[in-house]
Amino acid sequence: MWMYLGLLAALFLGLHNLCKKHAVQGNEVFPVLLGTVSSGFLLLLPFYMGSAWFPEFMQEIQFYITDIPWKTHGFIFIKSAIMAASWILAYQALKHLPITIVTPIRSAGPFFTFIGAITIYQEEPNLYQWIGFFLIIFSVLLYSRIGKKEGIHFKRNKWIFAIIGATFLGASSGLYDKFLIQSLTLNPQTLQFWFSFYTILILLIVLSITWFPNAEKRKAFKWRWSIPLVGILLVIADYFYFRALQDPEALIMLLSAIKRSQILIAVVVGGLVFKEQNKRKKLVPLAGIMAGVFLILYS
């Protein structure tokens, strides 16, 4: 069951990435990010209020947000700080790079998760899983060669380093999620609500320094329908992902890889919607990444 939940998470993440590209194109990144996280928080707020006023009903429909100790709040704040840094880097990179380059680099995240799963959680991969992960990494390297044809030199482009940093931080957060869900026994909605709350606080601090005092940047910001949709789709995707992690048999390294199937939506649909270059050539390494994911599922 947890694998099917992972595939549902991948579906909504793919749609989330398409909306995110639309939201940041020619737009100020930080207020877009604040708008998306705030939208997700507002979606979860009725569940928090319902848990306070109608606890029995919320428990019955399995959306009850539990009371947690301050120590647990501290653990969730750490996740918020990690993901805020990852999103800031990722949104900046997405603003300056094609989605068909950004998304496949993000697909290297399972490799970092793979290493962490072995060293931290002692998850044991088999031969097919080894082949699958290295096939994903090799396919991402192929994307770098295609990126040069679009004027994107991986060694000299700072946004490439930004998306690599975002990928590493995102993978670290994924490993941390297993600790939060399984070791601290947090339910998905409780983790999502407080994670969104603390992320908004962090972003408000960042914006108070970089955006609010600058009148020109405030005028340059464009509100788009895709901004709240990004946050809503992410909350739905994370909910399915955290539900999958609740299963004691769930392997974080496999879940991370399954989520990479979102690239099918980002590369194929995104390439058509945003009319990006070399779409056919990008299908070759895309096939390699999908084959890697298949090997992991098959194993």
Automatic annotation (TrEMBL):
InterPro entries: EamA_dom (IPR000620), EmrE-like (IPR037185). Keywords: Membrane, Transmembrane, Transmembrane helix. It holds the Pfam family EamA. Residues 2-144, 158-297 form the EamA domain. The chain crosses the membrane at residues 29-54, 75-94, 127-147, 159-181, 193-213, 225-244, 250-274. It comes from the Bacteria. This is DMT family transporter.
